[in-house]
Amino acid sequence: MTVGMQELLIFLAIGLVAGWLAGLVLGGGGLLRNLIVGVIGAFVGGWLLSVANISLPIGNMLLSQIITATIGALVVILVARLITR
Description:
Helix content is 80%, strand content 0%. The radius of gyration is 13 Å and the shape is globular. By secondary structure, the chain is an all-alpha fold. The termini are far apart.
């Protein structure tokens, strides 16, 4: 497996976990929905924390990325719910 493929699979796994966690908090779910929300959430969470100049004080990089993506996924779900009302 090439390095690029491995990084993509790790990114998708992080997105899937983040989407699943956000689904646990706010309800909803499904494999594809969790994956989409988590992947979008990874970008949104990274952008939000960057704009707010927040750096998570977590030594484990993978856990930090999952938490960042979960924060973003929560925001994505909440914004989607506001738009669809």
